[in-house]
Design a protein that fits this description.
Elements (H helix, E strand, L loop, with lengths): L6 E5 L4 H11 L2 E2 L2 E5 L5 E5 L7 E5 L5 H17 L4 E6 L18 H10 L4 E5 L17 E4 L2 H11 L3 E5 L5 H11 L3 E3 L1 E6 L2 E5 L9 E9 L3 H12 L5 E8 L3 H9 L4 E5 L7 E3 L2 H12 L1
Parallel strand pairs: 1-2, 1-5, 5-6, 6-7, 7-8, 9-10, 9-13, 13-14, 14-15, 15-16
Antiparallel strand pairs: 3-4, 11-12
Helix pairs in contact: 1-8, 4-5
The chain binds ribose-5-phosphate (R5P).
The site of ribose-5-phosphate (R5P) has 16 residues, from strand 13 and helix 6.
């Protein structure tokens, strides 16, 4: 248990809004951390605040993880060497969860390897809806204490204010955990499709028969990345002459070009939670994260 006055937060990249909320809501002061990129692309980290004896909340969402992981680990190691008592990682998006088994002989199980890296440098991890599928809990692969927060209530509250008569559709078996949780908040119908991934950019999906008459179809997934899972559904729903379709995701890993393509293919709009800074962000999870941080470290 830490005291609020002994806590300090640092952000590495785009997460200043969350550090601002932590300061406003819990009075946790923001520390100064500088990342310098040398011409040869090496990175220097400099901690410019006193951290000796303090509990550190290090905020770093882990999209584009390969670029971020070294600055993140250098920061954690430097904080420790400067005497930080505990370092908690707040990663609203936790990367490398989808390669959760060796699909072909010789493949790395990246989820486990990434877990080893983070577990050896942090004292706790807080994240939102990691892609738990074949691995059922973070505790199976992470050896540090972890707290998993769920965006489903925030999504449900937001969605049911925008849409009167939704029908939720999840693209694959994994998505049922999110889709059913959102649907249960207002007892709305939902359907889950069967998906087979062919490669990084393409999937085959079987949609069960749905009666979308008079309803807005809301496609819900934890992640939109290549967009293949959403595009194939949009195509199929177009064939069924469904008029109104929205796409909602927790973690927006896609670019503007894909957002435009989803709209061209029939989505009225694409919305996401702000676990990753993105033009589609509409659903704010700051309160959820602040409560999660409070519960874990205080
Ligand atoms: C995987 O099973 C996830 O739940 C998502 O369905 C998947 O990551 C989406 O990826 P993409 O947008 O590339 O189809």
């Amino acid at each position: 248990m830490a005291r609020l006055s002994d806590c300090i937060s640092f952000t590495l990249f785009d997460e200043i809004h969350l550090a601002d909320c932590l300061e406003a809501e819990l009075g946790i002061k923001k520390g100064k951390l500088e990342i310098h990129a040398f011409p040869d692309h090496e990175t220097k980290v400099r901690i410019k605040s006193e951290v000796s004896g303090k509990t550190v909340v290090l905020i770093c969402t882990l999209n584009q993880p390969n670029e971020k992981i070294l600055p993140l680990l250098f920061s954690a190691m430097t904080l420790k060497s400067l005497g930080a008592k505990n370092i908690y990682l707040v990663a609203p998006y936790l990367a490398y969860m989808r390669q959760d088994k060796a699909f072909h002989p010789g493949e790395a199980v990246s989820a486990k390897l990434f877990a080893v890296l983070l577990s050896s440098h942090f004292d706790g991890l807080i994240t939102v809806d990691p892609h738990l599928h074949r691995i059922k809990t973070l505790g199976e692969i992470y050896t540090l204490p972890s707290k998993v927060l769920h965006a489903t209530e925030a999504i449900a509250n937001w969605l049911f204010k925008q849409v009167k008569n939704p029908l939720l559709i999840g693209p694959d078996a994994e998505s049922e955990q999110w889709v059913s949780a959102i649907a249960s908040h207002h007892q709305v119908p939902y359907a889950i499709c069967e998906k087979h991934r062919i490669d990084d950019q393409s999937v085959q999906t079987y949609i069960p028969e749905v009666d979308a008459k008079g309803r807005t179809v809301v496609l819900v997934d934890d992640i939109i990345s290549s967009g293949a899972s959403m595009l194939v559904l949009l195509e199929a729903l177009k064939q069924q002459e469904v008029q109104h379709i929205l796409c909602i995701t927790v973690h927006a890993l896609f670019d503007v070009a894909l957002e435009k393509r989803l709209i061209q293919m029939g989505a009225d709009a694409v919305f996401s939670c702000n676990t990753i800074k993105h033009t589609s962000n509409r659903i704010d999870l700051s309160s959820l994260l602040i409560q999660g941080i409070y519960d874990m470290i205080l």
